[in-house]
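Q: For a teaching session next week I want to show students how multiple molecules come together into a single three-dimensional assembly. I've collected the sequence lines for a complex. Could you give me the predicted structure tokens for the whole thing so I can convert them for display?
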Amino acid sequence: MNALLFKITIGFYFIATVMYLVYLLKPRDLVGRLSHWLISSGFVLHLVFTAFRYHEAGYTPITNLHEALSFFALAIVGVFIAFERKYHIFILGSFVIPLALLLMAASSTFPSAVVPLNPALKSQWLLVHTTLAFISYATFAIAFGAGIMYLIQEHFLKSKRLGAMYHKLPSLDTLDEINYRSLTFGFPLLTFAIITGAIWAETAWGTYWSWDPKETWSLITWFVYAALIHGRLTTGWRGRKAAILAIIGFFILLFTFLGVNLLLKGLHSYI
Amino acid sequence: MTTHKRSFTTALWDFFCSLKLSISLLIGLALTSIIGTIIKQNASMDEYQHYYSDSTIRIFNSLGFFDMYHSWWFILLLYLLTVNLVACSIKRLPRVWKMIAEPTLVMDEGLEKSLSLTHEFKLAGDAATLRDKLTAFLSQEFAPPVITEVDGEYHLFAQKARWCRLGVYVVHLSIIIIFIGAIIGSTFGAKGFVQITEGQSVGSFVDRYTGKTVDLGYTLALRQFEVEYYPSGAPKEYRSFLTVLENGQPVPGLIDRKIIVNDPLTYKGITFYQSSYGTIHQLTMRDRKGGAPYKIEAADKEPVSLPGGGFAVIAESVPDVSPYMPGFTGPAVKVVLEERNGTQQSLILLQNNPQFDLQRGGAQIFTYDGKTKYFTGLQVAKDPGVWVVWLGCALMVIGICMAFFMSHRRVWARISKGQVVLGGTASKNQPGFQLHFDELADKLKKL
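A: Of course. Below is the structure for the complete assembly, covering every listed component.
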């Protein structure tokens, strides 16, 4: 049942990705609405899959790479749908949804068996801490997508070759606005994730902060986004600079999520 | 001379107030923090020598890279950030405070021009009637306004969530409070590890950082330890039953207190966290020629000395040997014997086959009598600063909500006979406020 749901979800994400890419070439409203419908349906299925998995395993399905990558994709799609509804920009999906599909494809390559929970992870904080972290990651993924779109759009403007693409992409102002809005949601959520992590660490390991690689890298991510926010609010790091930093920030974040687990050893090495 | 001096202090002040410094420090902290995730922190010299050459070790050591988060330069960066935070807040707070405490009540032409959201429209009625209408309208739809009369014109001013402008400063303060909590913890706290065997107790622990012995002021006894497994053999839950004894008397409420991972025990400011466990095995050594048997108690992987010199180490233990040695069942251990002359040999002992070691043909015959006891491994932490840190975290959550999710919205109205000018602005999310403002103006036109 679960394996089937997972496959159907991937199917929906795949068709949605194709449709969003079609939209990139032919930005018809109908194509956009169809893509939106596809991704929304995929999201609901994905949510049901995750809920089933939670029920089956008895804990938040996020404790191995199969689960974590799928959870990340779920968060990205969820946050994307929220942004799409707010800004009515279908084309954002052409840059964000392929990422979700990629994560799902990666997830499917890892063993999907439900593994009994390590005693250290038996805590209600598992749900709160990881959900906050993943929604914040997802919001930064939106900033990443908007950042890439910004650079492309700016390239068209600078080269004065206002080709077909120029008219399909939103204005620089809108893209910068999306970048900013995702920061103002992602950063608070990242902060809350770090704080709940500290509370959990205190009850599980006896210290709220131990400079474990995962903790340190999440703090590095926090420093980078804090710098970006201060640069934005006060010294006018808008537009291009903000877009580039959002892209760099997302790569650091990906390292915090995956690189640390795969390359560096520490207390967080559950995956 | 004085002017020169003043200009230097001004320059220093400006340096600490600058946001460029904040951003450089944040990026600097981010970059340097990477070092400690690549170079293993606080490992033994032997381990470092395994990875690095002697000259590299010298350089890393002098730069504090082996304990970089406590190195002087990293701490200095954190202090600089603190000074920067305080300086920025001192510089900017008075202006923000003025905006909160003494709002601009009158929208003159200059202010009107600076506002991006304005509406001008005609309404029937004299100024006083319109004033009353608008006061009622704003009170109902937005917030109760303050009325000012200037040259026969009425000015209304209404605002929402003005306090959220302080959010940034609450966040900055919270960071300083967290730092203070961390300093209290590192100055007056201690962290260590204790191992207690079933039936035994401890009264002190060794601080990991200073190496000093910290007296608990009481004793902590382990009566029993239990471990439960998943069918796969992975541990599902392990629990220690601990009793706190003061002057030899058990403390009521802390007798046989169960602790598990994620559920520690705290007494008199010291917290004990379930961290690891192990088993103690009993072996018996007999001389082949006869004589009294010699009992050995040993934990996994801990060498015990044998009579007549040499050591025995239990390298591995399994609850059931059948998957590894078909035809045999029951618990088994793999023991490595190191004789006085340094020769090593390893032997397998089976609890269900006491005769098994006879075949080895050694001068001594070993038998495995099984597990006797468990021991528990507990992380010990004494951190009087932790509540200060939690206070800081709580403030940070509040401050962040104020700074990111709330917006100071202001609306002005200038009323003269038959005419109203409406102006508005928000400290954040101007597009979102615009929708609300336009709606307000539409409703007002229909009044």
